[in-house]
Amino acid sequence: MKIEKENDYTVISPEGRLDTVNAPQFSEELVALLETKPKGCVVDLSGVSFLSSSGLQALLVGAKTSKQNNIKYGVCGMNEMVKDVFVLSGFDRFIDVFDDVKGAVESL
Questions:
Q1: Spatial separation of the C-alpha atoms in residues 54 and 103, rounded to whole Å
Q2: How many other CB atoms sit within 10 Å of the CB of residue 24?
Q3: Helix, strand, or coil here: 42?
Q4: Which of 15, 34, 75, 101 could be cross-linked to 47 through a Cys-Cys bond (beta carbons 3.0 to 4.6 Å apart)?
Q5: pLDDT at 1
Q6: Cα distances (angstroms) measured from residue 18 to each of 7, 53, 90
Q7: pLDDT of residue 47
Q8: Any bridge partners for residue 94, and if so which?
Q9: How far apart are the first and last CA of the chain?
Q10: According to the 3-state scheme, what is the secondary structure of 52-101?
Q11: What integer pLDDT is reported at residue 8 of this predicted model?
């Protein structure tokens, strides 16, 4: 997982599968990152090949933590399979979705 800065935003980029094996660690790292109170946080999912309900839960924890701390939050870079899971679960209704990091940073 990579963590980078883009302007005043923190970009976290998990890789591989976000499933029951590694979603808990991702969630912990995401919450720790959000506790530093960046202006905004973008989760770049371009390196994620599979998203399970555990991965969705981790993204939801990030969204709730961001909202509580008034941090702008969004996801980007989903492949078709990951996007299908995200949209079918209804997460696109309360987490902003962007094509790429640049678009997310400019729009959030």
A1: 26
A2: 12
A3: strand
A4: 15
A5: 86
A6: 26, 9, 18
A7: 96
A8: none
A9: 22
A10: CHHHHHHHHHHHHHHHHCCCEEEEECCCHHHHHHHHHCCHHHCCEEECCH
A11: 86
Compute the distance between CA of residue 79 and CA of residue 67 in angstroms, rounded to an integer: 26
Place of tokens 């991965």: 55
CB atoms inside a 10 Å sphere around CB 25: 12
Every domain of the chain and the residues it spans: 2-107
For residue range 37-75, list pLDDT tens digits in order.
Answer: 999 999 999 999 999 999 999 999 999 999 999 999 999
d(CA 18, CA 42): 16
Token reading at 65 = 């933590």
Q: What is the pTM of this model?
A: 0.92
Has domain 2-107 been given CATH number 3.30.750.24? Answer: yes
Q: What are phi and psi of 23, to 5 degrees?
A: -60, -40
